[in-house]
Each structure stands twice: as C-alpha cells, then as structure tokens.
Amino acid sequence: MAPAYVVDGKADGNGDSHNASASVPEYSDQVHAEVPEDLQIGDHGYKFRMVDGRVMPPYITPRCYGLSRRIETRPADVCFVSYPKSGTTWLSYIIVLLTGKAAASLESSFYWVESSWTHPMTESDIASDRSPRLFKSHMPYDMALGGTPAQNPCKYIYIARNPKDVCSSYFYFESGKSWSGFYNGGWDHWLQMFTDGKVHRGDWFEHVLSWWEHRNADNILFLTYEELKMDPRAGLTKIARFLDVELTPGKLDEVARKVSFSEMKTTEFSAMKGVKEFGKFFRKGEIGSWKEYFTVAQNERFDALYASRMGSSGLDFIFM
C-alpha cells in the first residue's frame, strides 16, 4: 500500500496511490503544519519551526517526525538521505528503477515519513507495505529514520553535493514559496542564512559530516552528486551492488538512459509535476552553477569557511 493523503490522521481518498496518480495539494499552514502556532517567522518572511534544535520546514511536524523515528525498519528497506537540493530526486529514481518499486509517479513510489505535506500516510500503510519499502529523508544522522542507523537493518544511501551548488539551487527553490513564507530576502541574505545554518534543515556542514563519519558502516553507502554525474554508470553499479541487485549490461543501459537529466525533465513519471509549486523542479543539474550567484568576495569567504569546517575530514567535492 502506498502513502495516502492524511487529514486529521485519516486517509483522504479511497485509492492506493501506487495505482492512481494524484496531485499534491498546495501547502497550507492550517492543513499541514499540525501546530501552526509553533511556527516562527524570520527576516524577509522566512517561515520555519524548530525540531530538536534545528531549523525545519513547517511541514516537518512533531507527529510525523516522531513516526519517522519509531519506524521499525526491515533488512530490505532502503532509505535515501540528503541535504536538500543535493540530487535526492535523481537518486530516488535510480533506486525505484533498480528495485522495481515504481508506482503511478515517482513521488508516490516512496515514503517521506517526516513530512506531513507531499507524502503523508498512515502508520498502517507503512507497516502493511511489501518489501522493499523505499523511504526518503532530509535528516542528519542523529535524526535518521528508524532511530540510530547503526541499530537498524535498513540500508541508508546518503548523497552529498558541493555546498556552493546546494546553496544556489536551494535559494531558487525556497524563494517565493508558500512553505517558506514566500521568502524574498535576495541572494546576499540567503547566503548569510545558509552559512549561519539558519535555512531549513540547518547547517550543511554538520548535516553532511554527520553521515560521512559513519560512511564505513555496513548499511550506509555515501555518494557524491559530482561522482554520480561524472561517471553515472560506475555510480549505478555501486548502488546496485550495495542493494544486492543484479545489474545486467542491458539493465544498466536502460537505467542510465532513463535517469539522464534530459529524460527526467520530460518524462511524466519523474517530472514532479504533481506538486503545484514544483513547476520548475529541475533546472540545470550541472556542476558549477554556483558561479552565476557568488561574487568574487563571497566565494573567497565561503572557501575560507569551507576549509575551516571541513578540516581534515577527508571529504572532498568537485566545484568546477
């Protein structure tokens, strides 16, 4: 059974979304924020709520976050994780194709338990679904789906992207949107919020490094957007091996073709058109788009911050 839209804890509608395509309702504080009075408004209208000391979108509610933490995972379950705008949707399509869990649309092929908005569901839906169940998350390691990953049989795949491209893509994604309070702060203000860890999902460095530190765990695969972009076939092979999925040369060719950026933008299944404000969800998908936003001075300051925060972690990114 697939995620069903939930209003006041009850499924809204009769169909299984794996069998019927449905549009996602526009975000509303009254419908999706659960406790609207807990929401805060920052500079330039930026709307958020605090969850376990981190800045989160209004639709990451106490009920949904609590459910995500107590989910009992199974060995066949797959949870793909990232900081937003790091290639999450791309990775989700790869996993859906490799596992054969395609439903009516890409967004109805997996669960996003921590969200009350785009992927709401009942607890019984999740418990009764057949394996492998696919889960999406944008949480750091200590807020992971199912509790502590080290104590879960679930397989976690984390994808990270260079922070300059993340920052610029996230700015485009969050500006003027209902869930962000129609934020209108402009690039300079956004960059400052991003480096201060005050955007939705908090500090990028903390988020990425929290998963990187556990990259050698048997049930965690750590990928970078850039390595997947530059050699997608090698990346697909690595993911299939981690998931114990047989990948024949023919299947590899098929998946590689379907997950190309041009194919995903135009294919109805993967275009994310079911969410009204995701009308231009896919932009360029390139490495180095940050150069359109950062001034020379901003780039120099960011480089200094990057060197300080990443230190001797051993995690390197390609910025182009």
Q: What does this entry show, briefly?
A:
This protein is of the alpha/beta class and 320 residues long.
Describe the SSE topology:
Elements (H helix, E strand, L loop, with lengths): L5 E2 L2 E2 L17 H4 L7 E2 L5 E5 L2 E3 L5 H9 L7 E5 L5 H12 L23 H6 L5 E4 L17 E6 L2 H12 L11 H10 L8 H9 L7 E5 H6 L1 H11 L6 H10 L2 H6 L29 H15 L10
Keywords: Lyase, Transferase
InterPro entries: P-loop_NTPase (IPR027417), Sulfotransferase_dom (IPR000863)
GO molecular function: lyase activity; sulfotransferase activity
Describe the protein's architecture and organization.
The protein has 320 residues and is an alpha/beta fold. It has twelve helices and nine strands. It has helices spanning 29-32, 62-70, 88-99, 123-128, 163-174, 186-195, 204-212, 225-230, 232-242, 249-258, 261-266, 296-310, and strands spanning 6-7, 10-11, 40-41, 47-51, 54-56, 78-82, 134-137, 155-160, 220-224. Strands 7-6-8-9 form a four-stranded parallel beta sheet, sandwiched between helices. A three-stranded antiparallel beta sheet has the order 3-4-5, with no helix packed on it. A two-stranded antiparallel ribbon has the order 1-2. Helix 9 (232-242) packs across helix 10. The longest helix has 15 residues, at 296-310. The chain is globular. The protein starts with 5 loop residues before the first strand and ends in a 10-residue tail after the last helix.
Summary keywords:
about 325 residues; four-stranded parallel beta sheet; three-stranded antiparallel beta sheet; 12 helices; about 35% helix; about 10% strand; Sulfotransferase_dom; Argininosuccinate lyase; P-loop_NTPase
